[in-house]
Specification:
It is built from 12 helices and 11 strands. Strand 4, helix 6 and strand 5 form a beta-alpha-beta unit. Helix 5 packs parallel to helix 6 and helix 9 packs parallel to helix 12. Helices cover about 40% and strands about 15% of the residues. About 45% of the residues are buried. Pathway: Amino-acid biosynthesis; L-methionine biosynthesis via de novo pathway; L-homocysteine from L-cystathionine: step 1/1.
Length: about 400
């Protein structure tokens, strides 16, 4: 094991010696067909990829760097963050199995479980978003095959004691998968906390520039690795060499961008917490916020994605708030260099047990802009919000 930090290893994997004269970054190899010199070596993986689906230099280097970052035996690339969640669910469950997850799970993951997996004979129990580790463990039954977690949870940012859940699941022969996009494989290490499979949307912080769709899957156990590899092979999924190259480039600077955006995120969160228009800021790094104790114990850094519950209001007022901003882009996704904002109240209706919120729910992603400028922009948003509340 290298004694160097994540920050150093993500760079040194590109510069280590013994490879001769070469560019710092790998070549982009656009290829479907791979040629061999001799018939007997055409199927020999040791000679390199046998077909374009196996991936070229950029994909192989990205996989190796992700595996190292995650502390995994191997890592796989799939075309989206959602695919990173669905592949292990497909690979590790069979008809008659049960999955346990949170009511606050990422919406498209929930849709896959409720639609595709249900039709396939895999049932899902969605526990209340506030369920703690003890409650989740108590819910495990004879048919439970897999527990799918997010920590923090989607949109409302509940935290869970991942290590406690993973340990109890291992004792019971139940598999665990964690969507670690918020932790980015950097601030939280799922496999080191006993999780079987760590997944993340490389679309977000790893690529970092809002120009790539990709997911990553990392694991240690040979059985999990084999099942995931077989499923990817059977589905015929592949990421383009250009996208792999872009994600690898983003990965090199991940620690710096993540840390800077986390610092700005906390500045903005603290300012929002003091605003009279705000009921709650849902951001685990913020003292007094949901899950702060678990974040402090388990995480070494913070993403800059948070929820903001306004005091009262309605859809029109929330839209006025968003429309008044000039520095926050209105668009889905997060983890890029730019700040983004979305109105999320309507998504609570998809849950079995919608949370009791004091008002409209806004999601903020803080980018690399000066936080003072972002705060000034949010001032304009709050002025528009107040004005909309007084309209007849």
């Amino acid at each position: 094991m290298s004694p160097h930090s994540d920050r150093t290893r993500l760079i040194s994997s590109a510069t280590h010696r013994g490879q001769g004269r070469r560019p710092v970054n790998p070549p982009i190899e656009r290829a479907s067909t791979m040629l061999s010199d001799r018939a007997e070596t055409m199927r020999d993986d040791a000679e390199g990829p046998t077909y374009g689906l196996d991936g070229g230099s950029a994909a192989r280097q990205l996989r190796a760097a992700l595996a190292d970052l995650e502390g995994a035996a191997d890592a796989f690339l799939v075309p989206s963050g959602l695919a990173a969640v669905t592949v292990p669910l497909l690979a590790l469950t069979r008809p008659g199995d049960e999955v346990i997850t949170s009511d606050a799970i990422y919406g498209p993951s929930r849709r896959f479980l409720s639609r595709y997996q249900a039709a396939r004979g895999v049932t899902t129990r969605f526990l209340p978003a506030e369920t703690d580790a003890a409650g989740l463990i108590a819910a495990i039954g004879d048919r439970t095959r897999l527990v799918l977690m997010e920590s923090p949870a989607s949109l409302t940012f509940e935290m869970i004691d991942v290590a406690a859940v993973a340990s109890a699941c291992r004792e019971r022969g139940v598999l665990t998968v964690l969507d670690n996009t918020w932790g980015a494989g950097l601030a939280f290490k799922p496999l080191a906390h006993g999780v079987d499979v760590s997944v993340q949307a490389l679309t977000k912080y790893v690529s970092g520039h809002s120009d790539v769709l990709m997911g990553g899957i990392a694991a240690r156990a040979p059985a999990c690795l084999r099942a995931v590899a077989d499923t990817i092979e059977d589905l015929g999924w592949h990421v383009s060499p250009d996208d792999a190259w872009l994600a690898l480039r983003g990965l090199r600077t991940l620690p710096l961008r993540y840390a800077e955006q986390g610092r700005s995120g906390l500045i903005v969160a603290e300012w929002l917490q003091a605003r009279p228009e705000v009921a709650r800021v849902l951001y685990p790094p913020l003292p007094g916020s949901v899950g702060h104790d678990l974040w402090t114990r388990d995480f070494t850094g913070a993403a800059s994605l948070m929820g903001v519950v306004l005091k009262g209001g309605h859809t029109a007022a929330a839209c006025a708030f968003l429309d008044a901003l000039s520095l926050f882009g209105m668009g889905y996704s997060w983890g890029g260099f730019e700040s983004l904002i979305t109105h999320e109240t309507h998504q609570m209706a998809y849950r079995d047990r919608p949370p009791a919120l004091e008002g409209e729910l806004i999601r903020l992603h803080i980018g690399l802009e000066d936080p003072a400028d972002l705060i000034a922009d949010l001032e304009h948003g709050f002025a528009a919000f107040r004005a909309a509340l007084t309209l007849p």
